[in-house]
Specification:
With 151 residues, the protein is mainly alpha-helical. 65% of the residues lie in helices and 7% in strands. This is MarR family transcriptional regulator.
Length: 151
């Protein structure tokens, strides 16, 4: 039996990680320069804006960020007056995060820039390619999470 040699540059998990890091580094630099926030802080702002209010545990599940990263970013955003902690009626041990008026204004300023960055990269691909790529990423997520058979 002949086994295929591992070539890291064509090993798909590595390529996904490398490309993700490349994009994230570029985005992080822009967000830090333009808005003074980190990627974890932006992800929290974006999820809270999308959901209205959300727990830190839900953010961890949605972003795959660890609890410490989410906690530190939430504390920093709260101290800056961008987030507020609200009582959680269903679970008194946790709280909900919600954007303040200043947090909503920051989200409104960043969101168009985020979409512009996305467009700048993905405008080099057809809509069908982008749709197929997104579909593949979602299928990979489902396979890794065990939600789809290993086709």
């Amino acid at each position: 039996m002949v086994t295929k040699a591992l070539r890291l540059d064509s090993f798909l998990p590595y390529r996904l990680s490398f490309t993700t890091a490349l994009l994230s580094d570029s985005i992080a630099q822009s967000y830090e320069t333009l808005f003074g926030i980190t990627i974890p802080e932006w992800r929290i702002i974006a999820w809270v804006a999308e959901k209205g209010s959300i727990t830190q545990q839900q953010i961890c599940a949605q972003t795959r960020m660890d609890k410490v990263t989410v906690s530190r970013a939430a504390i920093a955003l709260t101290e800056r007056g961008l987030l507020e902690r609200l009582p959680h009626a269903e679970d008194r041990r946790s709280h909900l995060l919600a954007l303040t008026a200043e947090g909503k204004a920051l989200h409104a300023a960043i969101a168009p820039k985020a979409l512009e960055m996305e467009s700048r990269v993905f405008s080099h691909f057809s809509k069908a390619e982008v749709d197929a790529f997104l579909s593949m990423l979602r299928r990979i997520d489902a396979i890794v999470l065990g939600e789809e058979g290993g086709e």
